[in-house]
Design a protein that fits this description.
With 342 residues, this protein is mainly beta. Helices cover 10% and strands 36% of the residues. The strands form 5 sheets. A 4-stranded antiparallel sheet has the order 3-2-1-19. The chain is globular. GO terms for molecular function: hydrolase activity.
């Protein structure tokens, strides 16, 4: 009996050490050509917050630094967000700080050379039903809507300062604002609120899939037993770019996650949603076959190779992920050089 128990114990140790989850769905097999050939992650780093760095991937799961982990463009500051326009050019939005009055926009034909394109200074106080807005602009993001042939630029602006007794009220007071533009040089009217519900939201971006628009948000209410979705990534849905948007779905991520990023898988059948566990602790990945869910979380950051189904370079912080062509990937690697993991 004792020998049998010892054998079973050894068997279990050996089995558990080799056990691993199936690989995430969405990858191509054999000689099948991926519909999404490559990906760019434009991000900041833990030690150089607000500056522009690049990492790339061929499968949307495993990411490698470019440029020996150094900045790729010295003039940019902000939370990187890149959008491809109808002219085939790339646009990136940023600002020098949340207290800066102006949003800066740069343009590039190849994601390598960026040139200043325009500046936009929103009159925050003129926002309808939001005259108490503070002079703060957080994480501007861009999306080109083919149906309206317009860009929408979103950002978050609070209306309450934090206090020593309640520093969190500053974050709970964040509301998502937007402005429309045909060309990112002229902008239509005063900023407006994107959502008609009264809830703190930051890091919002929009995507259209099928006949629906999806707003990916961070719920900025502090989590409690009575608001369990606080500080998580959620999705709201609308038939129109400007809403009204449904109340957000249940949480996609655990609590204390922010800066969501969404990419389609190589076979274009699956969605990968990344988000950061702050402050700069790690990244999580949730996966679904449609944006209505359900979502499940992939295994990563375990530091066991057999269990990690995705990986990042060390100390990367939030930004944006976009699909790129293999030709664009090769051009970036040729220009900046790939930092291979050992």
């Amino acid at each position: 009996m004792i020998k049998k128990l010892i054998f079973l114990g050894i068997f279990w140790i050996g089995f558990s050490a080799k056990a691993q989850q199936p690989d995430p769905p969405g990858q191509v097999k054999g000689n099948e050509k991926p519909k999404n050939e490559a990906y760019l992650f434009a991000h900041m780093t833990h030690n150089d917050y607000g500056r522009l760095y690049y990492s790339v991937s061929l499968d949307g799961l495993h990411w490698e630094n470019l440029n020996s982990g150094k900045r790729v463009f010295e003039d940019y500051k902000g939370h990187p967000d890149i959008c491809k326009g109808p002219d085939g050019k790339y646009y990136i939005a940023g600002n020098t700080g949340d207290d800066a009055k102006t949003i800066n926009i740069w343009v590039s034909e190849d994601l390598i050379t960026w040139k200043k394109y325009s500046d936009y200074t929103p009159d925050l106080k003129s926002t309808p039903d939001y005259s108490n807005a503070l002079q703060r602009i957080g994480a501007p993001k861009l999306y080109y809507d083919k149906d309206s042939e317009k860009f929408i630029m979103t950002w978050h602006t609070p209306h309450l300062d934090g206090t020593k007794e309640d520093p969190e009220r500053y974050w709970a007071s964040q509301r998502t604002l937007y402005v429309l533009s045909k060309d990112l040089k002229t902008f239509e009217g005063a900023p407006k609120r994107l959502f008609d519900w009264d809830m703190g939201t930051i890091d919002v971006f929009i995507r259209k899939v099928g006949d629906s628009y999806y707003a990916v948000i961070k719920d900025e209410t502090y989590p409690t037993l009575y608001w369990t979705t606080g500080k998580t990534i959620r999705i709201a849905k609308s038939k129109s770019l400007l809403g009204p948007y449904s109340l957000p779905q249940q949480s996609i991520s655990p609590n204390f996650r922010e800066a969501p990023m969404l990419i389609p898988s190589p076979d274009d059948k699956i969605w990968y949603m990344y988000y950061e566990q702050y402050p700069g602790v790690s990244y999580g990945l949730s996966i679904a076959d449609n944006l209505n869910g359900p979502w499940f979380q992939a295994s990563g950051y375990t530091f066991f190779a057999d269990w990690d189904k995705y990986s990042f370079p060390e100390k990367v912080r939030h930004g944006c992920m976009i699909t790129i062509s293999k030709k664009e990937y090769d051009g970036l690697v040729k220009k900046f050089g790939l930092v291979k993991k050992l």
